[in-house]
Structures are given as C-alpha cells and as structure tokens.
Amino acid sequence: MEAFIIIDAISDLHGFLPCDLAGGDLLIICGDLTARDFENEHALFDYWINDQKYKKKIVIAGNHDNVLQEKRLKYQFCDYLCDSGTEFEGLKIWGSPWSRTFEGMNPYCKAFTCETEEELTEKWALIPEDTDILITHSPPHEILDQVYYIDHGKDQAEHVGSTSLKEYVLNKVKPKLWIWGHIHEAYGQGEIFLDYQNTIVCVNASHVNELFMPVNKPIRIIL
Fold first, then answer.
1. In the structure, what pLDDT confidence band is assigned to residue 2 with cuts at 50, 70 and 90?
2. Which of 68, 126, 157, 195 has the fewest Cβ atoms within 10 Å of its own Cβ atom?
3. C-alpha torsion 144→145→151→156, nearest 10
4. Are 128 and 94 a contacting pair, CB within 8 Å?
5. pLDDT digits over 117-159, tens only?
6. Would the pLDDT of 94 be above 50?
7. Rounded (10°) CA dihedral 163, 169, 170, 171
8. Are 48 and 199 in contact (CB under 8 A)?
C-alpha cells in the first residue's frame, strides 16, 4: 500500500493560534506569526507549536516578523527556514520569507522585503531546483494573489504577487507543492499544470481575512 504524507498549511496567523489543529505528518506555517511582533509573543508561538501533534513543524517568517530578522531569534520546537532547507520522508523542502514592498506599506511591516523585482530575483535564485515543497511568504503573480479595493466608488481587483518568483519557480523549480500566504483575501487552493509530468499544487493558506479576522481553516494536502 502506497504511503501518503499528511500536510496542514497555515499562514498569516497574526497572533491567532488555533487550538484545534488536526495533527498529521507536516505542519507548515508561512509567516506573519504574531499580533505585535514582541519577543514574548514569539516565545508563546514557540510553545504553542510544540503542542501541535505533527511529526515535523516548519515555519518561515513574513513581512510582519521584524524580530526574526533583526534579532535572529531561534525557535526550539520547529524547523525555522530562512533561505534554507530541510528534508522529510525524502522530500526536499525550502523556505523563503521575502516579499516586495508596496506603496503605502506600514514602515513597521517591512521585514524581509525588497524594493524591486530585480532584488527579489537574487533571493529566488537561492531556491534549489530540486525542491519538492516550496514555502514562500509572497505569492506569485496572478496565482491566488488578488487584492480588492474601491477606487472612485468602483470595485477594483489587482494581482500583486511577484512576477520574478513566478517565472523562476515555474521554469526552474517545478515543485510538487507550493505554499504561501501574505495576501489574506486570496486564501484557497489550486493547481498549475505545466506538462504531463509536472503539476504544482498551489496553496494560499492565510488564516486571517482582509479584516484580520481568523476565519480561514488550515488547508490539508495529501502528498
């Protein structure tokens, strides 16, 4: 009988720590972990993740996690990936926290950000081409990355994901599974069919919605 790996993905907790995670093989969290980015909140997060019933727990940072960039805190109870990788059951896993700044961005929420796609390209180039599971905070352009707003009384939608990330991953890496967050209102799951040999399962696992309310459940993937 073929073995399966049970993966639960969640992102953008912003201090909301679910108490009812189902447990499984892998728990993957894609950044923006605390409410106010205080060191004691990160300690609380670390103890919370220790209580989760998974064989392996993997975490990356997001643009709200300044403490992780400035003070280089270390978690005790999970694998923290920052332009680095790990393995599980023969799967190669890589985590990258980077995203692009945008106009009007809160100056206190610019951890692991770059000003241009050219700068981001250097970060994506660190991702090994044999990666099986890719974890990024940023979404790729036009894939589960839409934001919605009202402009002059009319509803508008805009794709805000990284163009350079999309190009690099789809052409070079081609992982089995790609998980991100960052854009709260784009929560969901889909697939990218590259060719008859390569299909990428894509997940935006944001826990909070655009109003920062914790309404979205972790997304379960079976590999």
1. low
2. 195
3. -30
4. yes
5. 999 999 999 999 999 999 999 999 999 999 987 776 777 889 9
6. yes
7. 100
8. no
Question: First vs last Cα of the chain: how many Å apart?
Answer: 14
Domains, the chain, with CATH or none: 6-222 (3.60.21.10)
Query: How many Cα atoms occupy the beta-carbon half-sphere of 68 within 13 Å?
Result: 32
Name residues whose C-beta falls within 8 Å of residue 190's C-beta, 6 or more positions apart in sequence: 143, 144, 201, 202
Among 85, 83, 55, 79, CA closest to 69: 83
- DSSP-based three-state secondary structure for 50: helix
Question: Of 36, 9, 39, whose CA–CA distance to 24 is shortest?
Answer: 9
pLDDT (0 to 100) of residue 1? 37
User: What is the C-alpha to C-alpha distance for residues 189 and 205, in angstroms, rounded to an integer?
Assistant: 8
Residue type, 150: I
Average pLDDT on 199-214 reads 97
pLDDT in tens, 58-73: 999 999 999 999 998 8
Could you tell me the two tokens for 221?
């993937």
What span, in angstroms and rounded, lies between the C-alpha atoms of 137 and 211?
Answer: 19
**Dihedral pair phi/psi, residue 46, rounded to 5°:** -60, -45
Angstrom CA distances, 65 to 36, 127, 180, 189, stand at 9, 21, 15, 25
